[in-house]
Amino acid sequence: MTQRISILGCGWLGLTLAVKLIGKGYRVYGSNTSNVKVKELEAKGIIPFVIDINDNHINISDFLFSDILIIAIPSKNISAFKNLIKKVEKSEVCKVLFVSSTSVYPNTNGIVTEETVTNNSPLAHIENLFRTNAFFESTIIRFGGLFGYDRKPGNFIKSGKKIDNPEGFINFIHRDDCIGIIEQIITGNAWNNVLNACADSHPTRREFYLKESEKLGNSMVVFNEKSENNYKIVTSQKMKSLLNYEFKYPNLMNY
Predict the structure, then answer these.
(1) Which of 20, 82, 144, 228 could form a disulfide with 171 if both were Cys (CB 3.0 to 4.6 A apart)?
(2) Tens digit of pLDDT for each residue in 212-221?
């Protein structure tokens, strides 16, 4: 029987992931919050659903008629996720992959691992709702800043705004690596884990954004030289060892 995967959030990451998984032979259900993209999802071979988790009364049982649920939405609505989890508990879903962020970690001015205490934040709270649930297996993947293709870091710089912490360090990851890592979590049955995922290199914000701005022909980059240069360096060693994963874009200064 073809394995079924539901992707909650077919946006910049989720849509490309869905297409990749279909190419691997999976049956993929994909959601968006608007009817506008339904035909686009269908055209790519995705079985489409319109789902807004803030709507507590929506029936998503058909969407959850699946083996694996991948959650790739930016919502930080704790009550909405509690309601979603109740529905997952009653479904056929037995494995959940929750796409999180390294923003859960405080700036420690040092290296952070999966054992580092997180901030007291809505995202960390939502992570814990999945980690402690006994009805399904779950893996939390904490991605660094996402970039690649049309998402160019040089465009992250707002005109006239100084960049803080110029001597702090970057924790970024290319979309191709995000998708490669998710694929290996699925094929390797790497469940019941919390994993960091950032490129191997961690250039300073100054050198990284100067390089990225030059790519776009922007020489007007201004740094806040008075900022405290607080930072964190997120290591992905646990993920690389567990999945035997090699980054496609390990060096952020050379891609």
Answers:
(1) 144
(2) 999 988 878 9
